[in-house]
Amino acid sequence: MLNVVIFGAPGSGKGTQSELIIKKYGLFHISTGDVLRAEIKNGTELGNTAKGFIEKGQLVPDQLIIDMLANVLDSNPATKDGVIFDGFPRTIPQAEALNEMLKERGTQVSIVVGLDVEESELIDRLLKRGQISGRSDDNYETIKSRLDVYNNQTSPLKAFYIKEGKYADIQGMGTVEEIFARIEKAIDAVK
Ligand code: AMP
Description:
CATH architecture: 3-Layer(aba) Sandwich
Oligomer: single chain
Strand order of the largest sheet: 2-3-1-4-5
Number of domains: 1
Number of strands: 5
Bound molecules: adenosine monophosphate
CATH superfamily: P-loop containing nucleotide triphosphate hydrolases
Radius of gyration: 16 Å
Distance between the termini: 8 Å
CATH topology: Rossmann fold
Shape: globular
Structural class: alpha/beta
Order of helices and strands: EHEHHHEHEHHHEH
Mean pLDDT: 97
């Protein structure tokens, strides 16, 4: 079974490339950002708590995210056939919890697809997306804090997964198709 983590800074193309990966490999998509935005839209307790963190560009506390993810895995039987994790894990405790959760379910992370994009390009892409996405966190100030959070809290995961022998470093600049071709090569090598 194939479980893919798609990893990279905000604006690195995780969502775009996830769609292509799903189309080719038929995985169940879990974007923690999308799940949180749905919770906010539905006015749930989790949504109300998450909103403040998201609008400041900060991470939602680990335990809330880990419980939310366990709930998505348990309530969607299709996740047993393989998942693409998009926007999760974002901290070392989340990565450790993911290993544990998958182990309990008799499976593991197959590969971490890490998209490498220059910071100036990330800011350009996010500002452009902000003009059409309507996302409250795609404005210059929040983008800056999301990039700081990525550099401080999330980027250490690269070393974590290199140590586990799971990290595929993907050059994330170029056309969508060029980047996907690099990803396909990396996934096909572990399939
Ligand atoms: P994204 O759509 O992945 O860019 O996520 C948007 C926002 O949701 C982030 O800036 C965080 O505030 C929150 N978020 C999404 N995924 C996580 C996660 N795995 N851990 C903590 N916060 C998250």
